[in-house]
Amino acid sequence: MKNLRHKAQRVAVFIDVQNLYYSAKNLFKSRVNFEEVLDEAISKRQLIRALAYVIRSKEVEKEESFFEALENFGIELKIKDLQVFSTGLKKGDWDVGLTTDAISISQSVDTIVLVTGDGDFVPLVEYLKSHGKQVEVLAFSKSASLKLKEAANEFIDLGENPKKYLIKNH
Q1: Phi/psi at 14 (nearest 5 deg)?
Q2: What residues contact residue 7 under an 8 Å CB cut-off, 6+ apart?
Q3: Among 15, 68, 78, 83, which one has the highest count of C-beta atoms within 10 angstroms of its own C-beta?
Q4: Cα separation, 28 vs 46, whole angstroms
Q5: What pTM does this model have?
């Protein structure tokens, strides 16, 4: 079901950076143009907050310039260090943090835009919709959860316009 977008809507955008990064890398061998993705998410509406959830690994120098670029687009960063366990297992996700932020900020907005294809966010989408919020999802359809796409009021496939949303690796 599509809801109408209008200039008076107050919007909050939540970007699952790792999900988008790896989808673009694996599907298109490209990087994400986060500035264009943010513009699409806002769609000339009133942006209340835009948050990006990132994991810091050991490649700090490369990451810092990327993090700085996101901040220059007006995106607030939430940063966690990659956890490396004694077994060699690595863990780094923001599912709980993004969810709690979306629920708390939802009281101040009309629309929540989730930039992720992660099906773990289906319960969040259902919760937000049950509390009267419009929920839009932006992701690459080929790697996005079908249940997430179906749960959202609107799904926008970033893969339909790769020239706009991707930056080719050189």
Answers
A1: -125, 115
A2: 44, 45, 46
A3: 15
A4: 31
A5: 0.91
